[in-house]
Specification:
573 residues, alpha+beta, Dipeptide-binding Protein, domain 1, Dipeptide-binding Protein, domain 3, 21 strands, 19% strand
Length: 573
């Protein structure tokens, strides 16, 4: 069972879903919804600043210039294309090139507001829908719809300055009102990512290009959150079926959606951002599994496949016209220890001894698409430092730590006070069968070198959920933390591992109270070191995905490709 942590929000979150605070809609902060309409409000504001011509001048222009005046009215006042009949023709402009990318799985819906999972984000985020801030290939927030932002000294006020001249793909203007409205909708309707916005006090549009967010408590990674689903800016005037259509401001628009089969993205000629599409048409073709996608790549049916399974690498390596590149990810596969009071692993020395017995380098190599990770923070997250040296593979140290609990004679064991003893029974390793027999057997063999006997039980997801998460009937388990910025989930005493640490709890509170990036980084490092030392889990490995592309294809993203695949820079030749 995949434990979905904080992709944009964790099911094991330490905080309840946010309720709309009373101050969220101050009278001077948000343009009224009706009446006047949002369109009229925008027109009135532009009139105050000289952006809208008087009615008399407009009529003269209309008489003199005819169609030109009508077009100006449509653009400036009604925020729509003056030539709707030509939309199809406009969509055909741009680069006259096309590419096909093989993916798995397919999104169930195009409604990125409500559809959970990575498939819809992978397809639409950064391509069709833009966020207030963009997310770099190093997983850091950078300029997006907002060209700049600043944070107050107390970390409670964020001011965003938007780029000018932005429009949605349907021709509607994108300005500060849309940003405010989008955040309203996300929180009020509990769209994906809303839970992480607990702490929003107010959101104000100060003119057409400035947005001010005020918090009731610090959210030190707010800028990063606003580069994900929580920060998507929607068209407040669009009337579409979000399940099958899209109205974003990104470098692509949706040309065609064949549910479960393919999604065709077309260069957006109205895009005015910094990441204009270099390819005219990109087709995302979906397959039942990654092996079929790799097979299509080998046959020349697709131009690129992100996140190639390690088992398919040799097949693709045999093709001279295919380039394989290994990137970085933040999906972490862990061996979790049951730290309950009645468990042998409630003693940190047993957990630490087990970690010394495990050879993580060998496990990562066996996986083929992974790297070593010695602590809770991967290289793409703030607060990362290499902690693989804390518990390197060292059987002698493992035996030294475990000798307190076990004699060298396999028939004699020393009891823990009021607890179990090694040798009463093998340690129960219970994990979902999707991880396969080989991983469990390798862990068993390695732990045996530290005189920890292991009995393996592979179960289906439902059984794992009941036995491990609900009943906590296990000694060790294998699970995945597949999110970024999720170190807090391990500190949660309600997590099924039953790990508790007053020191870690206090450090996590300090992390949450960080007022700036420097404090945030430093406090995360301290927390990560404490958690890694306590060893509630062993970090078996972190994902390092492989990306396959035709040799003449450039600009393919390589990091985080399982959930974030911005394609504007991808081109042929």
């Amino acid at each position: 069972m995949l434990v979905t942590m904080r992709k944009e929000h964790s099911s094991h979150s330490r905080t309840p879903a946010p309720q709309m605070p009373p101050s969220y809609q101050p009278a001077d902060a948000i343009t009224p919804a009706a009446p006047p309409s949002r369109r009229e409000a925008r027109a009135a504001r532009r009139a105050r600043t000289g952006g809208i011509k008087s009615v008399a001048v407009f009529l003269v222009l209309l008489l003199v210039f005819g169609g030109a005046g009508w077009a100006a009215y449509a653009i400036l006042v009604e925020h729509r294309s003056p030539f709707p009949a030509l939309n199809g023709g406009l969509d055909k402009t741009g680069p006259n090139t096309s590419l096909t990318i093989g993916l798995s799985p397919a999104p169930q819906s195009l409604d990125i507001r409500t559809q959970s999972g990575d498939a819809v984000s992978q397809a639409l985020l950064g391509n069709v829908y833009e966020t207030l801030l963009n997310r770099s290939q190093r997983n850091k927030p950078e300029a997006g719809i907002a060209q700049s932002w600043k944070t107050s000294d107390d970390g409670l006020t964020y001011t965003f300055h938007l780029n000018s001249g932005l429009t949605f793909s349907n021709g509607h203007t994108l300005d500060a009102d849309d940003v405010v409205w989008s955040l309203q909708q996300t929180v009020q309707h509990k769209y994906v990512g809303a839970d992480d916005l607990d702490g929003l006090a107010s959101v104000k549009a100060e003119g057409p290009s400035t947005v001010v967010i005020t918090l009731s408590k610090t959210i030190p990674d707010l800028a990063w959150l606003l580069s994900g689903r929580a920060g998507i800016v929607y068209d407040s005037e669009a009337t579409i079926d979000y399940a099958t259509q899209a109205a974003g401001s990104g470098p692509f628009s949706v040309e065609r959606w064949d549910a479960g089969s393919s999604l065709t993205l077309r260069h957006n000629p109205r895009y005015h951002g910094r990441n204009e599409a270099k390819t005219g048409t990109i087709t995302l073709r979906y397959y039942d599994n990654t092996q079929l996608a790799a097979t299509a790549m080998a046959k020349g049916e697709v131009d690129a496949v992100p996140n190639v399974a390690a088992a398919d690498l040799d097949t693709l390596r045999s093709h001279d016209d295919i380039t394989l590149t290994q990137g970085e990810g933040y999906e972490k596969v862990l061996l979790g220890f049951n730290s309950s009071d009645n468990s042998l692993f409630s003693d940190a020395r047993v957990r630490q001894g087990a970690r010394y017995a495990l050879d993580n380098a060998a496990l990562a190599k066996q996986n083929g698409a992974a790297g070593e990770l010695g602590g809770p923070i991967p290289s793409l997250d703030p607060g990362y430092e290499d902690l693989t040296g804390l518990y390197p593979h060292d059987v002698a140290k493992a035996l030294s730590l475990l000798n307190y609990f076990v004699f060298r004679s396999p028939s004699e064991y020393r009891k823990m006070p009021n607890g179990p003893q090694i040798g009463d029974r093998p340690m129960k390793l219970v994990y979902p069968q999707k991880y396969g027999r080989q991983l469990g057997e390798t862990i068993k063999e390695q732990l045996a070198q530290g005189d920890i006997p292991v009995d393996i039980t592979m179960v289906d997801d439902a059984t794992w959920q009941k036995q491990v998460v609900e009943q906590r009937d296990f000694d060790m388990t294998i699970f995945t933390m597949d999110s970024s910025h999720d170190v807090g989930d391990l500190v949660d005493p309600d997590l099924f591992l039953s790990y508790t640490s007053s020191q870690s709890e206090q450090l996590y509170k300090q992390v949450e109270a960080s007022r700036n990036d420097r404090e945030y980084e430093q406090r995360l490092k301290a927390l990560a070191r404490q958690v890694a030392s306590d060893s509630p889990v062993d970090w078996l490995y972190v994902s390092r995905p492989w990306v396959a592309a035709k040799s003449d294809v450039t600009g393919m993203p390589t990091n985080m490709v399982d959930c974030y695949l911005p394609l504007a820079g991808v081109a042929r030749g």
